[in-house]
Structure formats: structure tokens, C-alpha cells
Model the fold of this input.
Amino acid sequence: MSTATPLLPPADWRDFLALTKPRVMTLVVFTGLCGMLAAPVGIHPVLGFTAILCIALGAGAAGALNQWYEADIDAIMRRTQKRPLPAGRMDRQSALHFGVGLASFSVILMFVAVNWTAAAILAVSILFYVLIYTVWLKRRTPQNIVIGGAAGAFPPLIGWAAATGQVALLPFLMFMLVFLWTPPHFWALALFVKTDYANAGVPMLPVVAGERATRTQIGLYTIPMAVAAVLPWPLGLTGAIYGWTASLTTAVFALFAAHVALRHTGAEDKMTPEKRLFSYSILYLFVIFGALVADRWLLAGGSA
Done:
């Protein structure tokens, strides 16, 4: 006698929301919004809202497709086992359809309502995260975060392009800031969850090269990140509000990164400096992008 395969209960809205990785989306939307508000020209509030909505939907689509593809390793890693797919609250086909539908809608809406430049960059960012990072790099090379970090760096470019219809040096430097920020940010996390990655067979740098090499790389990547963060000020692209904020917050980031880079630790260590760097790195981006907008609106009076 054959037994029927039990059907999964229908997923509710909270499961679909979880697929979009809302905590990650918050930072993505914020940097995209700041890129838009820092642009030298204004944008109609309705179009601005539409652009930010498209950035949020595009980020959510990338998160959903990432979880669709990585359902097998998510089921192994402790920090991801409660996600909708490994927890059995949703089937993979639903996640795939949801992700593809969300991605298509976000790009089409951006193209129709805003402009083709912003839509093109949004499409590239989604495809980069899904195809380059998730499918190609993550399971193959410890450089996955280095190259794949570009995916999360696109929102300032998208926001700027939504307002202006083009890209410029300042949003490119903001792209480079996020791109160079990603390795020390993510490797700090990887240091205290490396067992998860090892069990799942994901070649994160601490698993492949060890803690010492990872700590060194965190210190090294902080140097060009700091340059990208401060450079807009001496180039005359921003004013003193951004310049001093970027200088001070980046100095704190560098101190935390140096503490991690120069530290020797055993397996029994609680990794407090690594957790401190990881937590501060998130606050750092919020503050520095907020300063970018404050600099533009307070020094320029909010005028175009």
C-alpha cells in the first residue's frame, strides 16, 4: 500500500515576508533612499515613493530567490533553519514563483514609472545577487563575499539614477563604500558562525583559510573602505557635515577592525570584538548615509 505525500499547509503572509529578508531590505532601502535624496535634483514625491518601492521589491525578490536556491544549506545551518523553506512552511516552487514575479514587477514598474537607467541598474543588481553570488560564487570560492558584495552596493546608484536619470562620481563612491564595507562586515559574522558554514559546505574565508587569514583580510579591506568613505569630502562632492561624520565614524570602524585583525583567539573565545564590529558596521552605514543626506539638505537648503 502506497502512502500519499502529505501536503504542506498553505504559507501565510509572514512566510512570504520572511522570504524577502526584511532586515537586510531595511539597509538596502535606506541606502537607496539616501542616494535619491543626495542627488542634485529633486524628484516628484510619487515617483520617489515608487522608486523606493521598486528597490524594496527588487531586494525582496533577490532574497526570496536566494532562499529558494539555498533551501538545502539553510536546513543545515542553525541560524537559517527556521526560514520558511527549511522549516517546511512553504514549498520551493511557491518561493520561486514569488521571487520571479516580484523581480519582474519591480523592474517593469521602475522602467514604466521612473526611468530606464534606474530600471536597468535594478535588474542588474537582482541578477547579480541571484546568479553571480548565490548560484555561481557562494558554494565555489571564499571570494564569494568579495565579488558578490557588489549586489548590495547598487541601491545608492539606483536611487541617484531614479532622480537624475544617470550616474555620477558621488553615487559611484557610495557604491564602492558599500562594496568594500561588505567583506569586513560579513567576515566578522562568519568568524563566529563558521561552524555553520563548515557543516553546510560553504567555503567562507574562515572555513577555507582559517581565522588568522580572515582577521588579516578584515584589516586590509578596511583601508580602501575608509578611503572610499572619506574621499567625497576632499573631492568637493560633499561638505563638512558629511566629511567630519565620515571621518569620525570611519575611524571608529577602523579601531574595531584593527582589534579584530590583531587579536589572537581560541575556539573557546566568545568573539566579542567580532560581534562588536559586525553590529557597529550596520550602524556605520546608517549614520554615514544619513550624513550624506543631511549634508546635501542642510548645506544646500534642500534646493536642487
The chain has two domains: 13-165, 168-304. DSSP finds 14 helices and no strands in the chain.
